[in-house]
Structures are given as structure tokens and as C-alpha cells.
Structure to design on (474 residues):
């Protein structure tokens, strides 16, 4: 039986894992390669690295991080942040990532999804999307870009389906309303999108305790769930999360 | 011992390379049939489209090299797409595949056309989407149906990482292991000195690395 994936997300700036307090700057919390190794040994199913550096110098450092991660962890991992061209995708994949994630760039230039899928296969192309509740939209959710700061005219469900049609092989859905609250994932939008696309849906934003993952896999119908703070600060281990999932009869990797 | 890795521009070979480097084995990544035919063991990875892959394998002579290598009795290991195109054919392409093993690759029966819900407006989005998504992506259990050195030290039902939309249906006597995803499908096959698996051992953690090592150590 296919298992539900627990994905740990690492934001990387200038080669350091960092945690952002929105609009208030970032605090470095460790070396991404060491953290990746530690989560690998604890049984994480997949990792995502978001490069939050804007500079080209930072991009070079990120590729070095990707190479060093690929040398020692043998599970899939994705890299996102600042990927705006097929050449950027190629650099990250050649450095050893399994998948690349595009977000704002795909809204501004949807062809990057199609071109990336044609070059590397849909399984490599992840659409990241930030959605916020908005009763004016047909699905009730609007897509935002630029780290959730800029609203677009896109309906969240329509955009997810369009991205699938264009060739995205997976969707990471981040709820702006839930992000940072640690009160749980936004289950309504997660379920709405997961049930209406044919590709796997990774839920993001709001995880604060293992029960939140139980909810997002059952009520939210997600295929995978992204966690960050709740494991980075040592509040919970991956073993505790997986034990909670197992207790709820959710299939997870041993 | 030198391991040859077939480079036919089908997907990311980096993960196979890093796994072999981690295991400390001599290997050569090559698109040259002669170079590969001089090696002791052959790994045949691949992602993507079976038709595109067969086109390259035909044009470069690499397909013939893989058949020759297999016929020589040396160990061959196919991974993912490499597991599908050792069969006679695939529903993904009208082109003939390598034909080393009897059988075909088939599309999961519950797969739907990419984005075929697109025409529905968000307002009438249904909640009756199929429970199973295609591609089959993620970790799933692998159950060996016979004793085989490839699974040495690996527990029954260990999880491996899969990404695929087509599954293999080799002749029954060549089924090595099975996996459940809507249907029970053969997730690995063995014929003489050929092993091939649908999942990615090089991306499947400790058990996966153990499997690659098992292949490198297997005695015919």
C-alpha cells in the first residue's frame, strides 16, 4: 500500500538553514547538510529545500549544498526558490535533486512548467502555490505570489488544474491563512485541491503537532505533508510523528 | 570489477552515480556501446517516456549492447524505465522494446488523461476524484515472491520509492516481487542474469542502498 509521506522543509539562505518570522527577518538554525543527514537517519520520507537567497552568489552556495546533500542522503529531495528557467532547473537536477519546485515564476511564465516537464519529465516538476481564503474566487481561494505577499487573479483550484495540465507532476499547497500558526493545516482547501487533481498533493502550512498530520491525511486527503518548525526546534521527532500516524491506521514507511 | 552505467539521456543519472560512489565501486557512465561491453556488470537506469528511450537506444546501438551484455551472462540491473523496456513492448509506445523478457508494460487501469478535469469550472468541482493518483509516486511496500540474492538482508515488505505510470507485466515465471497499488503488480523481475525493478533503489534509503550492493555482489 502506498504510504503517506512526511516531508521536512528547510529554508536555506547563504548556505544556512533559516527560519523566517514574516516581515521580521530570519534566524539561522543550522547547517542544511547536517540537518538533512539527521532527518534522513530519523526516517524522513523526503526533503524540500527552499533557496530564499536572492543573489546569484547565494545560488552558487545553494548548488553546493544540493551536491553535498545528494552525496549522503539516498531519498528524494526537491529544491525550490528562484528557479526561473529550464537552465536553472537543469543546474539543480544535475547537482543531485530529484525534483524542482516553481511557484511565482510559474504564475508569471506558465510555459516553464511545460518546458521543464518536456525536458526532465513531469515527475521532476513540482508546482508550489500559496493560497489564501477569498470568497470572491470561484473555489473560495486565491493564489498569491512573491512569498504570499502579492495577490494574483488566479483561482487556486483552477491554477492547480491548469498546472497539472501543463505538466506539473506534484503540487505543494501552502495555506497562507494557516502558515506560521501551528494550529493545523487548512483542511478545506487541501481536500478541495487534492480531490480535484490527478497528481499527488503535498499539504503545507500550519503543522504544529502530530495530530495535525493525522487530520491532513484523513480529512484533508493529502498525499504528503510538509513540516518545518515542529521538528526544527525539537518539539517533535519524526518517530513521534510516524507513531501518531500509525496509531491512526495511516500507512507510513517504517 | 567495473560497473557500466548506461547513459542514454533518459532522466537524471546523478542519483545512481552518487549511490555507486557511496558504495566505493569503480564505475563508468557511458553512452558508448563498446565501453559498456567491456565492463563486468551493467546498470540500466532511466526515467521518462518508453518511446523516446527506445528511439535513442536504437539509434546509438545501446539497445543492442544491452542485449549482447545480457547474452554474455554478466549481471544486468534495470531500474524504473529500465525495468519496462527490457520487455517486448509497452502501452506507452507502438515501438518494440528490447524483448529480453516476455511481457509488456501497461498503464495503470485507473489512470486518466492529464488534466482532463480542466474543462470543469472550479464552481462545479466534484469530490468524486479517483482515490488513486497516477503517477504512482512515493514509498510503497515490496514483497519478494521468491528467495533471491537481490533481497539479501532486506525485510519482506520493506518500502521503496516509486515514480511511474506504467507497470510491468512479465511472464509469470520472471516475477521477482510484487507491490499493491489498486492492483497487485510485479514491481521487479528476474530472468537468469537480469534483474530489473520498477522502484528506485538509489533513492530508497538504507534498504535501497543494500539492494544496489546486493546486485554488485551477486554471483551468477
Amino acid at each position: 500500500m502506498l504510504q503517506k509521506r512526511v516531508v521536512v522543509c528547510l529554508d536555506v539562505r547563504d548556505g544556512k538553514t533559516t527560519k523566517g518570522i514574516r516581515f521580521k527577518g530570519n534566524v539561522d538554525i543550522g547547517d542544511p547538510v547536517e540537518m538533512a543527514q539527521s532527518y534522513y537517519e530519523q526516517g524522513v520520507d523526503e526533503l524540500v529545500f527552499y533557496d530564499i537567497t536572492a543573489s546569484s552568489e547565494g545560488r552558487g552556495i545553494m548548488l553546493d549544498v544540493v551536491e553535498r546533500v545528494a552525496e549522503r542522503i539516498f531519498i528524494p529531495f526537491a529544491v525550490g526558490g528562484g528557479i526561473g528557467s529550464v537552465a536553472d532547473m537543469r543546474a539543480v537536477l544535475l547537482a543531485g535533486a530529484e525534483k524542482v519546485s516553481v511557484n511565482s515564476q510559474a504564475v508569471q511564465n506558465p510555459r516553464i512548467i511545460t518546458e521543464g516537464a518536456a525536458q526532465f519529465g513531469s515527475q521532476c516538476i513540482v508546482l508550489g502555490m500559496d493560497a489564501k481564503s477569498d470568497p470572491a474566487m470561484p473555489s473560495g481561494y486565491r493564489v498569491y505570489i512573491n512569498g504570499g505577499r502579492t495577490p494574483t487573479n488566479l483561482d487556486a483550484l483552477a491554477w492547480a488544474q491548469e498546472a497539472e495540465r501543463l505538466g506539473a507532476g506534484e503540487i505543494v499547497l501552502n495555506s497562507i491563512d494557516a502558515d506560521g500558526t501551528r494550529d493545523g493545516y487548512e483542511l478545506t482547501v487541501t481536500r478541495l485541491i487534492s480531490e480535484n487533481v490527478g497528481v499527488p498533493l503535498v499539504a503545507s502550512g500550519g503543522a504544529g503537532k502530530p495530530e495535525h498530520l493525522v487530520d491532513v491525511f484523513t480529512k484533508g486527503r493529502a498525499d504528503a505533508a510538509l513540516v518545518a518548525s515542529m521538528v526544527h526546534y525539537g518539539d517533535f521527532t519524526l518517530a513521534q510523528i510516524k507513531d501518531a500516524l500509525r496509531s491512526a491506521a495511516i500507512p507510513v514507511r517504517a | 570489477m567495473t560497473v557500466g552505467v548506461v547513459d542514454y539521456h533518459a532522466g537524471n543519472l546523478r542519483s545512481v552515480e552518487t549511490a555507486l560512489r557511496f558504495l566505493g565501486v569503480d564505475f563508468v557512465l557511458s553512452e558508448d556501446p563498446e565501453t559498456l561491453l567491456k565492463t563486468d556488470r551493467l546498470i540500466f537506469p532511466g526515467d521518462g517516456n518508453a518511446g523516446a528511450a527506445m528511439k535513442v537506444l536504437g539509434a546509438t546501438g545501446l539497445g543492442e549492447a544491452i542485449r549482447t551484455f545480457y547474452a554474455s551472462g554478466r549481471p544486468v540491473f534495470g531500474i524504473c524505465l529500465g525495468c519496462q523496456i527490457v520487455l517486448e513492448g509497452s502501452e506507452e509506445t507502438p515501438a518494440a522494446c528490447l524483448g529480453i523478457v516476455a511481457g509488456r508494460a501497461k498503464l495503470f487501469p485507473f489512470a486518466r488523461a492529464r488534466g482532463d478535469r480542466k474543462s470543469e469550472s472550479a464552481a462545479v468541482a466534484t469530490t468524486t476524484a479517483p482515490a488513486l493518483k497516477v503517477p504512482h509516486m512515493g514509498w510503497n511496500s515490496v514483497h519478494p515472491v521468491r528467495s533471491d540474492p537481490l533481497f539479501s538482508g532486506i525485510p519482506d515488505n520493506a518500502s521503496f520509492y516509486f515514480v511511474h505510470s506504467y507497470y510491468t507485466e512479465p511472464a509469470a515465471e520472471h516475477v521477482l516481487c510484487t507491490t499493491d497499488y489498486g492492483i497487485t503488480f510485479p514491481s521487479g523481475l528476474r530472468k537468469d542474469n537480469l534483474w530489473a525493478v520498477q522502484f528506485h533503489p538509489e533513492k530508497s534509503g538504507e534498504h535501497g542502498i543494500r539492494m544496489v550492493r546486493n546486485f554488485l555482489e551477486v554471483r551468477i
About this structure: The longest strand of chain A covers residues 5-13. The longest helix of chain A spans residues 56-72.
